[in-house]
């Protein structure tokens, strides 16, 4: 856990893929692999408790591919900065997935809103009734 409350993922649990970034940049872009993709498996993690693993897997199920979460970074020109950015974003994603969902407090419509709705329904039905009576 970092001072800002973010989960720290050990380097041993991360796997990396590198490729060339797209976009402008001239000859440099065509020769260096600065785009970074970091992969992490929540089910194999040693940092999380079993309950936390289940919660992360459930919350991030839309992002899971073959049981792994993938984060891509190609915003910086250097591979090192893109690696740091990708790990930071992955840790923020996992921390957010661990945060408990807020309970919805059931509410009721106000008396005024109920009365306005019923008055509108009565007016509308009166309009239609008046059309029929012609």
Overview of the structural elements:
The structure is a single chain. This protein is of the alpha+beta class. The protein has a domain at 11-98: Double Stranded RNA Binding Domain. 43% of the residues lie in helices and 15% in strands. It has helices spanning 27-31, 50-59, 79-98, 111-132, and strands at 14-19, 35-40, 64-65, 68-73. It is elongated. Residues 98-134 are annotated as: Disordered. GO terms for molecular function: peptidyl-tRNA hydrolase activity; ribosome binding; translation release factor activity. Its EC number is 3.1.1.29. This is Aminoacyl-tRNA hydrolase.
Keywords:
134 residues, alpha+beta, Double Stranded RNA Binding Domain, 4 helices, elongated
- How would you spell out the order of helices and strands? EHEHEEHH
Largest sheet: 4 strands, antiparallel
Q: Report the CATH architecture of the domain at 11-98.
A: 2-Layer Sandwich
Uncertain segments: none
Determine the fraction of residues in helical runs and give it as a percent range.
Answer: 40-55%
CATH topology of the domain at 11-98: Double Stranded RNA Binding Domain
What's the quick description here?
It is an enzyme of class 3 (hydrolase). The protein is α+β, with helices and mostly antiparallel strands. The chain contains four helices and four strands; from the N terminus they run βαβαββαα.
């Amino acid at each position: 856990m970092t001072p800002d409350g973010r989960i720290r993922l050990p380097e041993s649990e991360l796997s990396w893929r590198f490729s060339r970034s797209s976009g402008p940049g001239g000859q440099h872009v065509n020769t260096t692999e600065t785009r970074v993709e970091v992969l992490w498996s929540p089910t194999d993690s040693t940092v999380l408790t079993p309950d936390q693993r289940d919660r992360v897997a459930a919350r991030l199920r839309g992002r899971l591919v073959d049981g792994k979460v993938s984060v891509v970074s190609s915003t910086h020109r250097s591979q090192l900065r893109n690696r740091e950015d990708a790990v930071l974003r992955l840790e923020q994603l996992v921390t957010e997935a661990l945060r408990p969902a807020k309970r919805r407090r059931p509410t009721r419509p106000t008396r005024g809103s109920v009365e306005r709705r019923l008055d509108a329904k009565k007016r509308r039905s009166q309009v239609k009734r008046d059309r029929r009576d012609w």
